[in-house]
Amino acid sequence: MSDLIFRALGGASEVGASCYYLGLLKNGAATPSYGILLDCGVRPNAIGEASLPALSCLEGLPVDLVLVTHAHLDHCGALPVIRKLVPGARVFATEPTIELAKLMLQDAAKVGEQEGAPLFSPGEAMEAAASVQSLPFGQTIDMGQATVTAWPAGHILGAAYYEIEFGPYRILYTGDISITSQHTVGSAAMPPGTNPVDVVVSESTYGNILLPSRKEEVRAFVLAVQSVIARGGRVLIPSFALGRAQEIILILLGAITSRDLPPTVPIYLDGLVRGVTEAYVRLSDFLPEKLANFIRNSRQNPFLRDPVRVVSSQAERLEIIRDRRPSVIVASSGMLTGGVSPMYAAEILREEESAVFFVGYQDEESPGGRILELGPGDSIRLGQQGIEVEIAASIEQYKLSAHADSAGLQNFLSRFPSHSILLVHGDNAARDNLFSAMKTDRVVWKPKNGDVFDPLSAPAWLTAPAAPDQRGEPVKVESRKVQGTVECRPDGSVAVVYPPEVKEMFEGITAVRTVLRRSPVKLRIEGAANPAGDGGEDGEEEPGKMPAE
Ligand SMILES: [Zn+2]
Ligand SMILES: [Zn+2]
Q1: Are residues 192 and 249 in the same domain?
Q2: Do 40 and 138 fall into the same domain?
Q3: Which of 177, 270, 368, 378 is the most exposed place for a label (fewest CB within 10 A)?
Q4: What tens digit of pLDDT does each residue of 109-161 get?
Q5: Last residue of a domain, one of 397, 429, 451
Q6: Is 80 within a domain?
């Protein structure tokens, strides 16, 4: 038992509306004497009040300090509302986060007005962001009952994770974290050695996913763009305006320099992406050295070099939508929930030769998430008007993530051995996986929105009597290597077909798991005009066969 209380107002088992309350109780009182709010975000998929965390729960609670980790709206979108609710609280963020939050919040205010459900005006957005005090990385501020240090979290420009001394307790809040370097931001600062803390509040976005190597994924993405352009199509890349879009532009420009993409095909930049990109240049002192030096020495905007073109009017946008010549369009929003990307998608999705490539997290309820589940011939309704679009374009998702994956998160968290860990900012599958991986050496919590508890107490799963062991005889598992054939059937289904002798092996077997080794597959197309197909001549392997083990 301790004097700490924790409550998720939002963002517990969701990626959105991150807002967590930490209170310190004094002398056995039921109400905290001091309160800290970790982030105050909104749900990107919802509008108006429904997008907010449950701020009414703060009634009667002190909020002395608000710590904003970064300028993505799921972490800072409710700041103007919080400002009105608790005007006396001091709010801290890094300088780039403050500058980027001005843009993001003003845009959110305009979008709210367009949707007819504004939470604040553009003026209030500006005022709220301007009232945030800057906390440089590595510096500690002493707020009496709490001292706070901000450390680089990777993820996007300005993103911080916070180390908080709160009364007698040490707390770590990760915000969104990345341990891989990107073009526009380094990796999270990994402190040397181990740094014991009492409580960690950690994101879990990709808690159940192992991402491919960034280098390989970038390569696959560039080759895919190349092939769409070569067949005369265009590529729409719906992108989060802040962070991901700037990375994508630099990847595309790099591919032009290395001659992987033609220098003449235009790259259009549309939506909030424009303003954010300009802010990145103004904030060049905070960018990685290579990029900062380029800006200093060349006095050029590294994001807006030829053939990148900024779309600045609706007329220009309509012109681009009508022009079916090869091009690449990077437009916000990233999940096709709003902004200008749904306008482009409504046209490009219908074009067989074109493609829509998603490059970030897709909520399964978002249009982007739903499109990933659909195939050619399926339809989806897009935009505010709900235009029905039949999908003909190719759809792919590239995991160019700005979040640590399951292994990365565990690696990062291993530097902070703690009594308790609270898993937030992730769906249940992601949190369950991290829970299983970490419950042997820490008290792991998977809070729900609204739960109030002492994070240093024992959760129910620890105190409940152990369930009787019903496992019985252990199941014998063995693996054998066999050759199989991957068969793509005319109805679109795919089957792994084994030779007849394998059938005997299956007798009495309760489960068989097929692991397909990652290797090139040659396909033999039967029934086509030219049955040999391409590459049927060089016969190291029998066409159509791939090893399965
Ligand atoms: Zn983020
Ligand atoms: Zn987030």
Answers
A1: no
A2: yes
A3: 378
A4: 999 998 899 999 999 999 999 999 999 999 999 998 999 999 999 999 999 99
A5: 397
A6: yes
Tokens 């001292």 locate to 147
Site of tokens 């252990």: 474
Distance CA 327, CA 192 (A): 46
CA of 11 to the centre of ligand 2 (A): 9
CA of 237 to the centre of ligand 1 (A): 18
Q: Considering its fold, how many domains does the chain have in total? A: 3
What is the C-alpha separation between 347 and 392, in angstroms, rounded?
A: 10
Q: Which residues of 227-385 form beta strands (DSSP E)?
A: 235-238, 267-270, 308-310, 328-331, 355-358, 379-382
Both tokens assigned to 498: 């084994």
Beta-sheet strand order (sheet of 328-331):
308-310, 267-270, 328-331, 235-238, 355-358, 394-397
Q: How far is CA 232 from CA 226, 262, 436, 458, in A?
A: 10, 12, 48, 61
Which tokens belong to 137? 């990385």
Q: Rounded to the nearest whole angstrom, what is the distance from the C-alpha of residue 72 to the centroid of ligand 1?
A: 5
Ligand nearest to the CA of 70: 1
185 and 282 share a domain?
no
99 with 147, same domain?
yes
Query: Which ligand sits nearest to residue 72's alpha carbon?
Result: 1
454 with 321, same domain: the answer is no
- What is the CATH classification number for the domain harbouring 286? 3.40.50.10890
Radius of gyration for the alpha carbons in the chain, expressed in angstroms and rounded:
26
Residues above pLDDT 90, as percent of the chain: 72
- Yes or no: say if 177 and 203 are a contact pair by the CB < 8 Å rule: yes
Tell me: do 150 and 85 sit in the same domain.
yes
Domain extent, residue 523, equals 476-549
Structure tokens, 196: 């014991």
Burial (0-12, 13-18, 19+ Cβ within 10 Å), 437: middle
Query: Could you report the per-residue pLDDT of 307-363, keeping only the tens digit for each?
Result: 999 999 999 999 999 999 999 999 999 999 888 999 999 999 999 999 999 998 888
- How far does the centroid of ligand 1 lie from the alpha carbon of residue 41, in Å? 10
CA dihedral 171, 130, 239, 430 (to 10 degrees): 20
Statement to judge: residues 130 and 72 lie in one domain: yes
In the chain, the amino acid numbered 352 is E
In angstroms, what is the span from residue 501 Cα to ligand 2's centroid? 51
Domain identity same for 18 and 41: yes
